[in-house]
Amino acid sequence: MAKAECTPKWNTLALRNRKTCPTPEKSFQTTFTPVSKDKNSQTAGHLAGGDTQSSNGPSGQFLARESIESPSKVLLMLVAGLSFSTRLYKITEPPHVCWDETHFGKMGSYYINRTFFFDVHPPLGKMLIGLAGYMSGYDGTFPFIKPGDKYENQNYWGMRGFCATLGSFLPIFAYLIVLELSNSCTAAIIAATLLIFDTGCITISQYILLDPILMFFIMAAVLSMVKFNQQRYRSFSASWWLWLVLTGINLAGALGVKFVGLFVIILVGLNTIWDLWRLLGDMSLSLVDIAKHFLARAFALILLPLILYVTIFAVHFVVLNKSGPGDGFFSSAFQSRLIGNNLHNASMPEYLAFGSTVTIKNLRIAGGYLHSHWHLYPEGVGARQQQVTAYLHKDYNNLWVVHRQQDNNSQSGNPDLVRHGDIVRLEHKETTRNLHSHLHEAPLTKKHFQVTGYGINGTGDANDLWQVEVCGGQKGDPVKVLRSKVRFLHRATGCALYSSGKTLPKWGWEQIEVTCSPYLKETPSSQWNIEDHINPKLPNISLSVLKPNFLEILLESHIVMFRGNSGLKPKDNEMNSKPWHWPINYQGLRFSGVNATEYRVYLLGNPVVWWINLASLGLYLTMVAVASIATQRGFSLGQQRIEHSLVLVRGGGLLMLGWLLHYAPFFTMGRILYFHHYFPAMLFSSMLTGLTLDILFRSADLLLHPPYSYWFQRAGQLLLLFSILYSFYLFHPLSYGMTGPLAHEPGSAMADLKWMDSWEF
Amino acid sequence: GWEMLQLPLVVTAQVDLLLVLVSLLAFWTRLSHLSYPNAVVFDEVYYGQFVSLYMKRVFFIDDSGPPLGHMILAFGAYLGGFDGNFVWNRIGAEYPSTVNVWSLRLLPALCGALCVPLGYLLTLELKFSHLSALGAAVLLLLENSLIVQSRFMLLESVLIFFVLLAFFSYLRFHNAPSSSWSRYNWLILSGVSCGAAVGVKYMGLFSYLLLLVVASLHTWKLIGDKTISHMNVCVQSVHRVLCLVVVPVLLYVFWFYVHLSFLNRSGPHDQLMSSAFQASLQGGLSRITRGQPLEVAYGSQVTLRSSVSQPIPCWLHSHKVNYPIRYDNGRGSSHQQQVTCYPFKDVNNWWIIKDPGRQQLVVDTPPRPVRHGDVIQLVHGMTSRFLNSHDVAAPMSPHTQEVSGYIDFNVSMPAQNLWRVDISNREAESEVWKTILSEVRLIHVNTSAVLKLSGVSLPDWGFRQLEVVADKLFKAHSSSLEWTVEEHRYGTSQEQKEREAELHSPTHIDVDRKISFWAKFVELQWKMLTVKQEESEHKYSSSPLEWITMETNIAYWLHSSTNAQIHLIGNPVSWGVANLSLLAYQLLAVVYLLRRRRGLKDVPDGVWDQFVCLGCVCVGGWLVNFVPFLLMDKTLFLYHYLPALCYLYLLSPALLEHAHTHLLRYAHQLQHVTHQRALCVGALAVLLSIFLTYRTFCPLTYGSPELSAHQLQGLKWRDTWDILYRRR
What is the rounded CA–CA span in Å between residue A486 and residue A578? Predict the structure, then answer.
């Protein structure tokens, strides 16, 4: 009931509010209050009358839109102008590789060169960077080896300019979103100003990074969603469909750049569920109508993004068809697709034979090759014998020789094939130790046994014997290279050779643990395949590996990406940024330069902006609490107050939810975190600030009488604007570059600006 | 009064026989043969060491949980006259006859037994029938894993007891008529139980937060009730906040108060704490530092301890060995005397504070104290070298400056041995440099770099001691920059030989020093939350998703010669029932919600409220006690699932009752009766099978009788369970 009543109020009030926007509120109050009251009583009689509402809403909005069109357009142009000029200013400075440009620039080049690589993020962002580089005449030859490398004559401005352009849209989107949510130009302008003059947002937009692209899609998705929400009274109209589909497209874009895009998908998802819940409660709609609504959303927000996302990967795999640095992360079948890989049109003996030299790959996705090296397990970790691990890269130490239990080397003629049930001894080619296991705990997986390299020149003991078992095979079946799934069962203890997927500590060179599992269930972790197979005594046969289909490739690359992501653990001595550092702007990131002599760029938010944001979060919670307790307790509030509390609860609630969704999950993440992970959340926080402060200023009449309250409101706005501009003037060298002494030394241009000891500029 | 006496003296008592019965059974299952096995079982080896330390009143830190749990176990030990003289070093070690095993295990077992009647009462407070309550009690009673966990010196049963008590008493409060004042007793009891639950294990926090959410929802409803006056709403809300927030917080602090006032002797974990903290403990550091002069003066002889205890606590140190001219990687050094950080007490840890303007190394009378901002020199006591730093890359951290004991090689490398004293806690303490209390940074005057412990160990040429550097770019609040004076005395010897003798002599003069309880509390709490122990996988650790289907078990004890053994294995049938009811509730809730939204009320509002409340407490309880583990990076065990499981056992019978009374209503009248009968028969059959499985697994629960290898094989219901067979 209450909900139905609120909606029309919202509209009529919106109308009044929009008109007040360019001019002082007072003069309009008298004219419009009776109108809104009238409409209220009118619509209250039509609680179930969806028609009345829907005809009311758009026409009211239409009228309102006319009246604010001109000033808001001017403001929008102003926002756009400032935004582009702050972000494109000094875009080519510094003319060397900054921070993560070394990764993303390199990956852009890979796309231009069509070389296959592995990265933990989905491909869209890097594809766009590559495309921007290609369009602007960059030829993909710059190696991007490490930060600080001079670009010389390379056309890097195109890639930077592309990112900066997308970054310039953020304040514009923020302006439009807040305008939609609060119907107040002031709120929108505050939000946009905060973002335009934030040094952090400027810095992060100016380099070849994924973040501006990601944030572009996130904000575009939120904007489309908010616009779509406004279309609720013209279901299935063209503009309704437009914004719905745009939301879906942007969601796919956000997820296609980084998995952080998932958070905005959750935001849109929650909003949609809320919307559907509202529709379900609308008894004027039949179940068929609701089903239509549901299907439309399912199509545009689930199916469409999914198709687009998959398409992005399809393009990725089609473009990258040459072997490159990322091959080893993927299965044998996957590698056979890549031109230049040794498995591409491979030619080797078809069946595994005794005396062959082989590499053995675990079937778990990103399971690695069976590997050993001249290092022992350290003291206290099982027996002090040679390490056996799984390694993701191709390496000589991955080679093993297959021997019989008792080797008589005087074999002539064709070597015997290894068959299901045969006992073998696997000798590590480089170190001549045998693959060995015994009843010691494995280093990490304590339920399993340790696997070591033991013996010398092939002489070991009974614990070196393994029984070959072809999965799904029978006794006597030969082992097909590349295609058979093989298990190695330890003769003495009956356990199966297993790759646990856990990363060994430093002593194990951060390779993957290999154990012997007493649990004999067949899982990919305990299954292996023979990848390279060298036996000069056998004829090489051209083998066509079963080419994986697209869905398998997609699944595999995702699992590899997730593994990679969670594998990014903080190193022991490395300073790790903690999520609670971020909103207080505790510590930035060095983009370029460390010493006094270098050209330094430091990613750090404008402290005034960030601390205003932080304070506003608290303020927002207080204001919402007061407003909702007053409502719940049934205090009679004026029209204007009710309107304000609605904006706070709905518009503010959405932004608050966005902030939480883009911030809170980082507290649970085990992977290494950086300051720049906060920027999507910071966008939401700034928008919330705009909305909150605007309502705070407008509520000045709670304490002050009309003329003073109006002056107070203006004074507050001016003060806010001035402090943001002045702090930007102070801190702009952070983004546009500093040289000379560091801030804590005398004579520095930034001398008194090191407000926190933790800042490093 | 006279009339009163004329009335007959009558005692009217209503005894719920069912409740009495289940309680008796609970005590019987949990308490019988409690002292068998007479050996250390599983984590007793872990908690036992703390119990021993309690008995000896020796300070310790345990990052696994707040102190109440340990205190309860220690209280049990105290009742049995345990003197703390037992070495808890391995699982399976026999207890000597001097240790009263029964009393060690009594309190957890009592708590475990009381969970059963509490489950019964809680179901009643959720407004379900006695039959449902009986069902919940039976599920809890016949759960093998709960029995195992209760019967040993472990804390889960205590935690579950307090959690159930908190919910029971809160609901009792909520259900009581709002006019009665006595209901606030229940609210206070609820707050106390919450404080106790969080005090036993941090895991209690999950249930506490859930209770707060439920209470806030109820309060929110109260605020919306316009029939009650503003004043009344205010008073009631304040009461709730007091009882459910303030009381638990105060209690939590109180546990630490008791903990810290009990444990006043120094012990194995001293080194993790600050010097001030250590000085407050008897023995250990306080024995050394008792009676030291408080204010550091020019001429003072001091040892400087790094404030950071990672990787290990250590003292600023130098010795008569120089940095190698070239390091292994080819970089050069100044070849001056090494300055390191050394984790052991040593005479080479002594430094003398010198006024740069004067020559003498003795303290004036009266002593001239060093203040914040003063510039000093530090002279190494045994070698008389000045602490020096210069623009030479440090051995292991080349981005920082080397720190050395200055030797003049005449290679135009002038001495840069002035250091400014920066007392970082001067607001809290004072401007004057104080022994133990002041945290000092030494800022190199020439380069404004700060003396810092880098935490890296030097190679063999540095005797694997820790590297000390001077760093220009430092993190502001890093404690690796801060140094405290630990041992301190006023130097009196003019000559080097005398001074060396003086440095070798122990320090002692008498003054007592105390730090406040709050400072100790904050420090201890912070250390407990930040001390990182090497998290490695345990042989019996498991992942949360394995708990739902009980893919895992834990072997608690194996007899030293026979196959008798105890395992943490749940009752598989009850486990299945719990999962089933969880699923059923969620499905039912979704259907109800969607239909209500369309205006179809399947159940009357009262029943709906009851259904929602059940969900909030039971499904909510399961969620908050399970989902957080999915996000944790810790070594986890099956027993972490037990609190969540208890909530499901409360849910199952209540949901069955709901289905019985409200769902079957829709069937045709005649079918209705048959359906109800079928349901009853089904429920009975399930109960019977629960009892039978309980019986089946009893040998693994109680550790007797011993089973043959073949029988054990038969009990291995899942391939992933580890059951032990002794090879004969």
Answer: 44
Q: What is the pLDDT of residues B39-63, one digit of tens each?
A: 999 888 889 989 988 888 888 888 8
Distance, CA of B687 to CA of B674 (rounded, Å): 20
CA dihedral A644, A648, A649, A653 (to 10 degrees): 160
Task: Give contacts of B536 with chain A, Cβ < 8 Å.
Answer: 444, 446
Rg over CA atoms, chain A: 32
CA dist., res. A212 & res. A174, Å (int): 14
The verdict on residue A501 lying in a domain is yes
What is the chain A residue with the closest CA to B632? A668
Number of separate domains in chain B: 3
Global pTM exceeds 0.90: no
Burial of residue B330 (CB within 10 Å: 0-12, 13-18, 19+) is: exposed
Query: Within this chain, do residues A402 and A525 fall inside the same structural domain, yes or no?
Result: yes
Cβ distance of B598 and A444 shorter than 8 Å = no
C-alpha to C-alpha distance for B38 and B102, rounded to whole angstroms: 9
Domain that holds residue B335: 292-508
The number of beta carbons lying within 10 Å of the beta carbon of residue A497 is 26
Q: Which two tokens stand for residue B153?
A: 């010196």
Q: Which residues pair with B387 in a beta bridge?
A: B405
- Chain B residues closer than 8 Å to A760 by CB: 473
Residue A186: other Cβ atoms inside 10 A: 20
Let me know: does A346 contact A544? Beta carbons within 8 Å.
no
A571 close to B (CB below 8 A): no
Contact in structure between B389 and B403 (CB atoms under 8 Å): yes
Calculate how close chain A gets to B632, using CA atoms only, in Å: 7
Tokens, residue A193: 């100003």
* Other Cβ atoms closer than 10 A to B233: 18
Give tens-digit pLDDT for A315-372: 988 888 888 777 777 777 778 778 887 777 777 888 888 888 898 988 887 778 899 9
Q: Say which of B220, B224, B633 has its CB closest to residue A670.
A: B633
ipTM strictly over 0.90?
no
User: CB A447 to CB B539 under 8 A?
Assistant: yes
Helix (H, G, I), strand (E, B) or coil at B420: strand
Of A480, A511, A539, the one marking the end of a domain is A539
- A515 contact B CB<8A: no
Residue A63 has pLDDT above 80, yes or no: no
Q: Does A671 touch chain B (CB under 8 A)?
A: no
Residues of A in contact with B448 (CB under 8 A): 744-745
Give A265's DSSP letter: H
Q: When comparing pLDDT for B86 and A70, which is higher?
A: B86
Do residues B236 and B275 both lie within one domain? no
- CB contact under 8 Å between A445 and B537, yes or no, is yes
Say if residue A355 is in the same domain as residue A221.
no
Residue of B223, B596, B597, B727 to mutate, interface with A, max A Cβ within 10 Å: B597
Q: How far does CA B139 lie from the centroid of its chain?
A: 29
Is there a single domain that holds both residue A251 and residue A389?
Answer: no
| Contact flag B594-A521 (C-beta cutoff 8 Å) | no
B216 touches chain A (CB under 8 A): no
| Sign of the dihedral through C-alpha A399, A404, A409, A410 | negative
Residue B13: inside a domain: no
Domain containing A283 equals: 210-319
Count the alpha carbons within 13 Å of A175 in the hemisphere toward its beta carbon: 24
Residues on chain B touching A521 (C-beta within 8 angstroms) = 719
The kind and range of the H/E element at A141 are none
Size of interface A-B (CB pairs under 8 A): 54
Can you tell me the distance from the alpha carbon of B521 to that of A230, in angstroms, rounded to the nearest whole number? Answer: 54
In a domain, A619, yes or no: no
Q: Does residue A523 share a domain with residue A411?
A: yes
The closest alpha carbon to A557, from A730, A247, A317, belongs to: A317
